[in-house]
Amino acid sequence: MAKQGWTSAAIAPQAGKTVLVTGANSGIGFQAARELARHGAHVLLGVRDRAKGEAARSRILTELPQADVAIVPLDMASLASIRGFAGEFLASGARLDVLVNNAGVMALPKREQTVDGFERQFGTNHLGHFALTGLLMPALLKAEAPRVVTVASLAHRNGKMEWDNLQGEKNYSPWGAYNMSKLANILFARELDRRVREAGSKLVSVAVHPGISVTNIAGPGSDFKSRFMRMFGRFLFQNDEMGALPTLYAATAPEVQGGQYIGPDGFGEAGGYPKVVQPRPQALDQQAGRRLWTVSEELTGVVYPVLA
Ligand SMILES: NC(=O)c1ccc[n+]([C@@H]2O[C@H](COP(=O)([O-])OP(=O)(O)OC[C@H]3O[C@@H](n4cnc5c(N)ncnc54)[C@H](OP(=O)(O)O)[C@@H]3O)[C@@H](O)[C@H]2O)c1
Predict the structure, then answer these.
(1) Average pLDDT for residues 45-69, to the nearest whole number?
(2) Can you tell me whether residue 7 is helix, strand or coil?
(3) H or E element in which residue 206 lies
(4) What is the pLDDT of residues 173-195, one digit of tens each?
(5) Which of 84, 208, 238, 280 could form a disulfide with 246 if both were Cys (CB 3.0 to 4.6 A apart)?
(6) CA-nearest residue, atom 45 of ligand 1
């Protein structure tokens, strides 16, 4: 039997901490939110669909009646929604201890656009989270030990930054766009880490990946990978509780350091318990990280404040 590694039972009490999880109504985001609530955090469920958010909150409260969980409307495919939420949050004067950049869409069969005209996968998975993190920075920097956890994927390994085709306008490939958005997640997490270090900030920025976990992400696509996941996924791959462990470890474990990339420790990193893993070289490219940052500022209009 495989040796058991770190589990959510090891999470220290989180009372007094405020955590925001984007895409918290299902899959990895839901599991992460529930475990953080179980350990006493004030958890904000960032959701684009209020009814799904209410259902997720009810599920948590049925199991954990004392949980401190609230829903916040947050559509990661809309800069207006992101700005609206962040503006209200900052105006409340609240502090944010942990931001989990988790919401995502995968391999959309046809090219779709966000309301701001971005290709939907790059727009939701990367640009939305770039904007949210930057806008919430003043609230994060109020915390004693702020963390930003960005959920990437094994898919980054096949990712390539197509600088002249970021919006998939020249040509669109469902997986090409997804892989690039997940590569962007790691480049962003590492560039944020570089910047906070340079500023002497206490903020810790980490990227994670959940291996291959059975969730709703396969979506309704008719391509082979999506159909395969829907039919056989649950027999072959780990569940979303296991998939949430890297996120939970990155969000709470005291030994975690900025710039790390955390994923499952099993064969091919497809499943298992959290450990520090290595991304592919294209995710370690500092020049690409800087370039992505500049492009993301230009596209979203969000310029980060001083980071310390
Ligand atoms: N499952 C895996 O094997 C796997 C592997 C590698 C990486 N990941 C990453 O893990 C993260 C979570 O995915 P998951 O596997 O847990 O899939 P999931 O169950 O489909 O969860 C994705 C969440 O993101 C939300 N979302 C999508 N678009 C959004 C938007 N515009 N605004 C706000 N929320 C939005 C979804 O909300 P709705 O319910 O409203 O659609 C859902 O709550 C993603 O970033 C994904 O890329 C997953």
Answers:
(1) 98
(2) coil
(3) strand 204-208
(4) 999 999 999 999 999 999 999 99
(5) 208
(6) 104
Whether 148 shows a pLDDT value over 60: the answer reads: yes
Q: Please list, residue by residue across 9-42, b when 16 or more beta carbons sit within 10 angstroms of its beta carbon and e when fewer do.
A: eebeebeebbbbbbbbbbbbbbbbbbbbbbbbbb
Question: 105 CB less than 6 Å from ligand 1?
Answer: yes
Task: Give pLDDT, residue 1.
Answer: 45
Q: What pLDDT is attached to residue 108?
A: 93
Whose CA is closest to atom 36 on ligand 1? 23
Q: Which residues are catalytic?
A: 178
Write the CB contacts of 9 (distance below 8 Å, at least 6 apart in sequence): none
Angle between helices 79-91 and 128-140 (to 10 degrees): 10
SS3 119: strand
Share of residues in the chain with pLDDT > 90 (%) = 90
Report angle CA 71, 72, 75 to the nearest 5 degrees. 125
**Lowest mean pLDDT segment, chosen from 71-75, 145-149, 227-231:** 227-231
Q: How far is CA 128 from CA 74, 188, 201, 306, in A?
A: 10, 12, 23, 20
- Phi, psi dihedral angles at 21 (to 5 degrees): -115, 120
Q: Is residue 2 very low, low, confident or very high in pLDDT (cuts 50, 70, 90)?
A: low
Separation of 134 CA from ligand 1 center, angstroms?
A: 21
Residue with tokens 């206490």: 202
Contact 124, 103 (CB under 8 A): yes
Q: Which atom of ligand 1 is nearest to the CA of 120?
A: 31
Q: Over the stretch 232-257, which tens digit does the pLDDT of each residue have?
A: 888 889 999 999 999 999 999 999 99
| Amino acid code (one letter) for 105 | V
233 lines ligand 1 (CB under 6 A): no
- The two beta strands, 274-276 and 261-264, are antiparallel
